[in-house]
Design brief:
Chain lengths: 644, 662
């Protein structure tokens, strides 16, 4: 067969280097082409990751056994010889940018699998890549500083199946630098400064929310085919809101990043919630940031988690053993004393007396008060059992106002009682005691001290904010505006917000880090709009734009005029769906002869197709418990015409 | 301590009543329990609020056998413990049943020496025991093994301590057919356990719809308890004079959401489509909403009528349910989440069905539900009244609120109920005949429920017990007395030997009362004698009744030996408990069915130390059963003691008032 000249651009030689020309015949297979090329280059290095990319046809010549003829490559073909894995700047859900090498030659689905394997995230099928929203120019200098997290050095071959070394995937254990990367991945970020939140783009409407979904990369095609180049920026996000089999032992990074994504969704009002819910989210964020600061060792001691139970047990024995005598044992079971002069006011009584001072005594879950300390041996003037009561703070540190508002249930209704404390310390103790008592716990409860501490730290938060405005937050003081969306920045001053968050905080402050993260995720998942990805569409036969919401189990149709859900279709009633790629229309048939069709305006119909197919794929996972990801099925369900 | 006091005074009050009724048997017929009505007694302490109704004899039998079983079990436990701790005590089985001084004991505890003895050890274990075990092990604890042993002992001791504080209530449960069953419920028991208990007593089909419901007479409310709830807590919130009831009923709506989830999660669809839904789709719905990482609350939104605070009008508002609470859309605002106003969150409220609100509150319809703190028992501005257009909407809301409030617990409860339904039905079919004796099954159930408080040992075979009783002179018939006796249980645990009522009072405050009682005691005996005569209405009642006689000095037919001991002890009663060596007497009392009248006599008789050994002896076992009767005797004593106590007179007044009303 006749030989002809094939010119190949070698990327590694630089953009200005001339193409290398080699003499080939049409029956030469790709492997032979590469061999010739490398020989001619005479550069000693590992070329094993390199492959040929055919620019005009936008395809990789990956099947090295195929001949040029079979690939239909002719002399006019512009081939580029380049690595299949290139660095990208990956924006993580926590907002941090991580440089790592991603596969540019396989479908994005596999690229994501590779990334997730490297990051230690299980169930990569739930994530995907997005083109980032263009940012303003200022970014440039920032880029440099953000590159500190770099995983490009990690040899791809070393990334293996999930197994933990020192609590983390083994490839992170090689150097301190890598360990720092793992820490970034697995530990939640501190609450962002309020200005940072305020500066970020916030969708104002459903249509705004729809736009982000036009940015998803096509899972069936590779990065090169989608115009992504080396060192480009990409976002890694959870795309399918159906989180399978979360295991706090193996999913440290996954849960952390999921939390970060959820947190930002809430802070930026990407998902709506009520004020009460926002306060609870705020309280959880506060708690999570506090706990993750105080137990960073958790990172490395993960391996010891297995033995946690044993450890706890021995601790228990140890503690109990310390009280060696019977009397001591009894002592530990009796509550610390709490009695003091406080002022009481009962608004419901129509007396105008205002606050009156008495000697108060805390016993079990009750408070009793006496005329004076001297008379505290006798019968109290009154004894109030706080079990089941509601406790609310009314505190203004600047004004030295420390009020505990109690709403005490009685057969006749709720009785309001206010207790006024003189100072912070007194307030923290009595507040803590009231909180415990309302839950039916006495002062002997082990959480008493930590309750006091957390109340004090909240007071500190109010103090700093009150005096210095938005001063940089130290460890102890977090600006409450960092915990809620900008809407509430306008609505409440930090010191107004503090008691509200504190109020919600009392229900979560005993959670472990993992439990707090899980609680956050659960509340997020319980929001009515959770899991909805929006696309602006036009239904067949309709003249106006409407929004299609895609959820893990259903599709909803939202009327933009009314803002209401007008129709819901569940996947399990779906008989089939088709995409007409030419007219970009999705047609779905449901049981009962229900047919719908729509064209997609803010996203490619492939994205919608992939969403629907993807969710159906997600729902098949629970049945087959196998660890192996059924990639083929995913492509079948989401590939569209590429899969054929 | 206070609890004990309260219990005892309660008992005394009851005894008072009993004696009165006995004395005037021919007189005011009205005295007899207004049999059909429920009477709730509560002591001064709300937590002791035991709602006892006039028990039917059969009820009493059931209760007694339960109690006996409990006693045996506890005794066994104690014995085991004792063995473990130190002396080579006799085998547990031999031990007399009445170790723990609980109300039960009062009934069951036999005056027999054996029982006394047994009682003694337990008390010590309860009060001082906790500390003791630790110290024992503490010294050697240098090695892991020892440390472990020690840890276990400490645990045991702690448990004992806790146990001592366990509250128990006697609960009368109304059946569908208008009859009732009386149960003793321990505060650690869940509704599920109580239901299981009732299943065994009633031989119903055990399907998942069977529920315990609470009705509030005053507020015209009712709700089904959730299976995971503890029964005692909500009942403790009832006021003393409350006419609330506990019903045992089939309530289809309880788990309807798991049978037809589409009605709740797809409620917007047209009804016809919902009916045709496939089972597979139902499963998917349940899986989606209850088996995911988060429980999904039905997406509810409807216009409901809200009763305005303090006004008689009802105002319409658009309400939305979210996992975090109920919200409404303020006038002129959109339905977006950020504009919603929180109406109520579920942490501190329960949801109730309102009954007949059209009449009571002029509600637009009778399909009303209410949200209130469980402790609120009377009309209050803190109660939220909502009214729906139809029953369907009401059920939707009530169920969805329960899902929001209880989350996955609800589904777990359902799964447990379902399992129980299958197992139980199979089991009852097979063993119905044997299970006919209510006493046997119930004890076992209880054992499970209250692992420690109530022994598992169903040792006292119901059969033998009843026989013994048969021999005994007919115990005093008055049912009311029975009601009261129940309360006592809690006290015992705390004070090892909660001596009879007297002992209980032994606490400093009570001393005065004790004396009174003692003073009164003398009279009781005569009465006691009289008591036997009251013919026991039924055979079964004898269980309870018989005991009293023994207390009274009647010779126990079955346990002659033990009786002897009893007799000896009896003499002592006259002496004031104070003078007596406190510890020993106390145990006796408890053993002897302390709560009731018997206490006085027992204290002196029991030789503190010897009793223990005696108890160990197997002989006591058979006789233990008789002790139960003391209650009857108690009435007599109560009459004496009661006079001195305000509480008692208060109680009596309340009772009389009630009766007169009837």
């Amino acid at each position: 067969m006749a030989a002809w000249d094939l010119s190949v651009i070698v990327e590694d030689l630089g953009p200005d280097a001339a193409p290398i020309t080699i003499s080939v015949a049409s029956d030469l297979h790709i492997g032979g082409v590469i061999l010739k090329l490398v020989e001619k280059l005479q550069i000693q290095r590992d070329w094993s990751d390199h492959a040929l990319w055919w620019e005009q046809k936008q395809r990789w010549l990956l099947k090295t056994a195929w001949t040029l003829e079979k690939w239909e490559v002719h002399a006019d073909a512009r081939l580029v010889f380049m690595p299949q894995h290139k660095p990208v700047k990956l924006g993580l859900p926590n907002g941090i940018i991580l440089k790592l090498r991603a596969c540019f030659s396989n479908p994005v689905f596999q690229t994501v699998m590779g990334i997730c394997r490297m990051l230690g995230i299980r169930h990569p099928e739930e994530l995907s890549l997005l083109r980032p929203v263009e940012e303003k120019k200022k970014k440039k200098d920032k880029d440099l500083s953000e590159d500190i997290y770099d995983l490009t050095e990690v040899p791809l071959s070393s990334v293996s199946r999930p197994c933990l070394y020192n609590g983390m995937p083994p490839h992170f254990a090689d150097s301190d630098k890598l360990e720092a990367v793992y820490k970034m991945l697995s530990v939640t970020q501190p609450p962002p400064a309020p200005e940072v939140i305020a500066k970020q783009y916030r969708p104002a409407s459903v249509v705004d929310k729809a736009h982000i979904n036009g940015r998803w990369l096509d899972s069936s095609r590779c990065l090169m085919q989608q115009g992504i180049k080396g060192n480009d920026r990409l976002w890694l996000r959870f795309k399918f809101f159906s989180f399978y089999d979360i295991d706090s032992k193996y999913d440290v990074v996954r849960v952390t990043q999921l939390y970060e994504q959820a947190r930002w969704a809430i802070l930026l009002e990407d998902i709506d919630c009520t004020e009460e819910e926002m306060m609870l989210f705020g309280a959880l964020q506060y708690h999570i940031s506090k706990v993750s600061q105080s137990e960073p060792q958790m990172l490395c001691s993960n391996a010891a988690l297995d033995d946690l139970e044993t450890a706890l047990q021995s601790l228990e024995v140890k503690m109990e053993g310390e009280s060696s005598s019977a009397s001591e044992l009894l002592k530990t079971m009796t509550a610390p004393d709490l009695n003091d002069y406080l002022k009481i006011f009962r608004p419901k009584r129509l007396t105008l007396k205002g606050y009156k001072q008495y000697w108060f005594k805390f016993q079990d879950t009750s408070i009793s008060y006496f005329k004076s300390k001297e008379e505290s041996i006798g019968e109290p003037i009154q004894q109030i059992n706080l079990k089941g009561c509601e406790v609310a703070p009314d505190v203004n540190v600047a004004a030295q106002k420390f009020l505990i508002k109690l709403l005490i249930p009685a057969p006749e209704g709720m009785n309001e009682v206010y207790l006024r404390c003189d100072n912070e310390q007194q307030y923290a103790e009595w507040m803590a005691a009231c909180r415990l008592a309302s839950k039916g716990k006495s002062l002997a409860d082990s959480t008493f001290q930590s309750e006091i501490d957390s109340i004090r730290s909240f007071l500190a938060m109010q103090k700093t904010n009150g005096s210095q405005g938005n001063a940089a937050a130290s460890d102890e003081s977090i600006n409450p505006h960092s915990l809620v969306s900008p809407r509430y920045h306008k609505k409440y001053k930090p010191k107004q917000l503090t008691p509200r968050i504190l109020d919600a905080y009392q229900n979560v402050n005993q959670l472990s880090l993992t439990d707090a993260l899980m609680r956050f995720l659960q509340i997020w998942q319980a929001l009515p709009d959770f899991g909805l990805s929006y696309v602006v569409v036009r239904f067949k036969g309709s003249r106006k734009d409407e929004v299609l919401g895609i959820a893990p189990n259903r599709l909803i149709r939202i009327d933009l005029g009314v803002g209401d859900v007008v129709k819901t279709w569940r996947y399990n009633n779906m008989k089939q769906w088709n995409v007409n790629w030419d007219i970009k229309q999705v047609a779905i048939e449901f049981e009962g002869n229900v047919n719908i069709a729509f064209s997609c305006l803010t996203a490619d119909c492939k994205i919608v197709h992939e969403y629907i197919g993807g969710y159906i794929f997600m729902s098949t996972r629970s049945r087959e418990k196998s660890e192996v990801l059924n990639e083929e099925l995913f492509h079948k369900l989401t590939g569209g015409h590429e899969a054929l | 301590m206070e609890d004990i006091d309260a219990m005892f005074s309660d008992l005394l009050g009851e005894m008072d009543l009993l004696t009165q009724s006995l004395g005037q048997e021919t007189g005011p017929a009205a005295d007899l329990p207004s049999s059909t009505k429920e009477v709730n007694f509560s002591t001064d302490y709300a937590d002791w609020n035991a709602s006892l109704n006039e028990l039917e004899d059969k009820d009493l039998d059931d209760l007694m056998s339960d109690l006996m079983a409990d006693l045996n079990a506890t005794e066994e436990k104690l014995a085991a413990e004792i063995r473990g701790l130190e002396a080579p005590t006799p085998p547990p089985p031999d031990l007399p049943p009445p170790p723990n001084g609980q109300s039960v004991q009062a009934a069951a505890a036999s005056p027999s020496p054996a029982s006394l003895a047994s009682a003694f050890p337990p008390p010590s274990s309860t009060t001082s025991p906790p500390p003791a075990p630790p110290s024992h092990s503490a010294k050697p604890s240098k090695e892991d093994l020892e440390a472990q042993v020690k840890a276990e002992k400490i645990k045991l001791a702690l448990e004992k301590l806790k146990e001592a504080k366990v509250k128990k209530l006697v609960v009368k449960v109304l059946m569908n057919d208008g009859s009732s069953k009386t149960l003793m419920v321990d505060e650690r028991q869940t509704v599920r356990e109580v239901l299981d208990n009732l299943f065994e007593k009633t031989h119903c089909d055990c399907n998942v719809d069977w529920s315990l419901c609470e009705t509030s007479h005053e507020l015209q409310l009712e709700r089904t308890f959730e299976d995971h709830e503890n029964l005692v807590e909500p009942l403790s919130a009832w006021t003393r004079d409350s006419e609330n009831q506990v019903l045992f009923q089939e309530r289809g709506e309880k788990y309807e959401v798991f049978k037809n989830p589409q009605n709740f999660y797809l409620w917007k669809k047209d009804k016809k489509a919902l009916k045709e839904i496939k089972d597979k789709d139902k499963e998917i719905l349940i899986k989606e909403n209850f088996c995911g990482s988060s429980i999904i609350v039905p997406d509810l939104e409807s216009v409901l009528h809200l009763r305005e605070d303090g006004k008689k009008s009802w105002k319409q508002r658009l309400f939305q349910l979210r996992a975090s609470g109920i919200y409404y859309v303020p006038k002129g605002k959109t339905k977006s989440s950020r504009d919603l106003v929180c109406f109520v969150q579920f942490d501190n409220v329960n949801v109730y069905y309102g009954k007949d609100f059209k009449t009571k509150y002029k509600a637009p319809t009778d399909f009303c539900f209410v949200l209130k703190h469980p402790q609120i028992q009377k009309e209050s501005q803190y109660i939220k009244y909502l009214c729906c257009d139809d029953a369907w909407t009401m059920n939707l809301w009530v169920t969805a609120i329960r899902i929001a409030k209880y989350g996955s617990l609800l589904y777990e409860n359902f799964q447990t109920a379902q399992k129980k339904a299958v197992v139980n039905s199979a089991w009852t079919n097979r063993s119905t005949p044997s299970s006919s004796n209510p006493s046997t099954p119930s004890p076992t159930v209880k054992a499970k429920a209250q692992s420690q408080a109530n022994g598992h040992a169903p040792k006292p075979p119901p059969g033998p017990v009843s026989q013994d009783f048969g021999h005994l002179p007919p115990p005093p018939p008055p049912p009311p007395a029975l009601n009261d006796p129940l309360p006592p249980p809690p006290p015992d645990p705390v004070f090892p030997p909660p001596p009879p009522p007297l002992a209980a009072k032994s606490s400093p405050k009570a001393v005065g009362r004790q004396q009174h009682l003692q003073g009164n005691f003398p009279p009781p005996p005569p009465e006691m004698n009289n008591l036997p005569p009251p013919p026991p209405p039924e055979e079964s009642p004898p269980d309870f009744l018989p005991p009293p006689p023994p207390m009274n000095f009647l010779p126990h037919p079955p346990p002659p030996t033990s009786f002897g001991g009893m007799d000896q002890s009896l003499p002592p009663p006259p002496p004031d408990p104070e003078f007596l060596p406190p510890p020993p007497p106390a145990p006796h009392v408890t053993g002897g069915g302390g709560p009731p009248a018997p206490p006085p006599p027992p204290p002196p008789p029991p030789a503190p130390v010897p009793p223990l050994q005696a108890a160990l002896r197997p002989t006591g076992s058979a006789k233990k059963m008789p002790p139960a009767p003391p209650k009857r005797t108690t009435p007599v004593q109560g009459g004496g003691g009661g006079g001195g106590v305000d509480l008692m007179s208060e109680l009596r007044n309340a009772m009389q008032k009630k009766r007169s009303n009837q």
